[in-house]
Amino acid sequence: MFNLRDEIILCQNMRERAYSPYSNYTVGATLVCKNGKMYLGCNIENDGLQSICAERVAFLKAISEGESEFAYIVVMGGKKGEKAEKCTPCGYCRQFISEFVGDDFKVFNVYDENIDEYDFKDLFPFSFKL
Question: What residues does each domain of the chain span?
């Protein structure tokens, strides 16, 4: 159904760009819009509380370019220099993402030789809505 080869390569490249001197945990994300455009993100840490996750970087780039319809995101993370491990969006990212996607939005987590696929509603069944 999904051919994620390009998205996985882009995720790997983004993991290498991550700035994570405090946790040494690197994450890459490839966000795919319904029109086929892709937006990339990596986690960026600082020594305060304003660090930002790869998923939000990708969404912010897409939204700032006028995108509003999203198909799926591919996420890959792990300790710097090591193989990717199971890594799904954190709670903050899940709440953020819920503002912009429907229940059928797909989240793919790539690690080892595995690709786990989730419907967003299964990862985040209860979001805060005003």
Answer: 5-123
Active-site positions read 55
Residue 2 tokens, joined: 């999904």
What contacts 24+ positions apart, CB below 8 Å, involve 121-130?
123/88, 123/89, 123/94, 124/94, 124/95, 124/97, 124/98, 127/94, 127/95, 127/98, 128/95, 129/98
| pLDDT (tens digit per residue) in 81-127 | 999 999 999 999 999 999 999 989 999 999 998 999 999 999 998 87
pTM across the whole model: 0.95
**CATH code, residues 5-123:** 3.40.140.10
